[in-house]
Amino acid sequence: MNTKNDTPHIHRISIGQKKGERKINVSRAVVHSGAGIDGDAHNDSDRPISLLPLESFVKVAHPDLDVEPGDFAENITTMALDFDQLKIGTRVRMGSGVELEIVQIGKECHLGCVIREKVGDCIMPREGVFAKAIRGGEITVGDTIEIVRPR
CA-based angle 149:47:128, to the nearest 5? Predict the structure, then answer.
């Protein structure tokens, strides 16, 4: 497990039973090849895994709000990962050899977004990226993340 703040790593892993709602934090998760994270509502979608940098949370900081990883319905909250390098087709490796391919940058926030209503803003449309699993396995909080260029 790596906890250095300057090395890209998994800060939190979050899963949820319903789409568009805050997710709960877990210490580890199973990622399925060709799909997403076991137990998450997006597991079988065309963009099953979402990533969001912890550094983005300061952009919605407000004294009356306590915003935590998972609140924006992201699956993997990262730390020290350079999202400017994450283009469509880029792959990232983490955990027990899990490899994700970036399939979408940002998203359109739907009307009636539960997160926007509760938190006041949703940074996923601007800051989040979405991926599919090329190689499955287990991921754990603290695992390092390596950017792998498109093949």
Answer: 70
Q: How far apart are the first and last CA of the chain?
A: 28
Whole-model pTM? 0.86
What's the chain's Rg over C-alpha atoms?
A: 14
CATH topology of domain 9-148: M1 Pyruvate Kinase; Domain 3 (2.40.33)
Q: What's the pLDDT score for residue 62? A: 65
pLDDT digits (tens, 9 = 90+) for 16-32: 988 767 789 999 999 99
CA dihedral 55, 68, 50, 120 (to 10 degrees): -90
Q: Which two tokens stand for residue 49?
A: 């895994």
Report pLDDT digits (tens) over 84-116: 999 999 999 999 899 999 999 986 665 555 556
Strand runs labelled E in the chain? 9-15, 24-26, 28-31, 49-53, 76-79, 91-94, 98-105, 129-135, 137-140, 145-148
Domain ranges of the chain: 9-148
Give the tokens for residue 142: 């603290």
Q: Classify 38 as helix, strand or coil.
A: coil
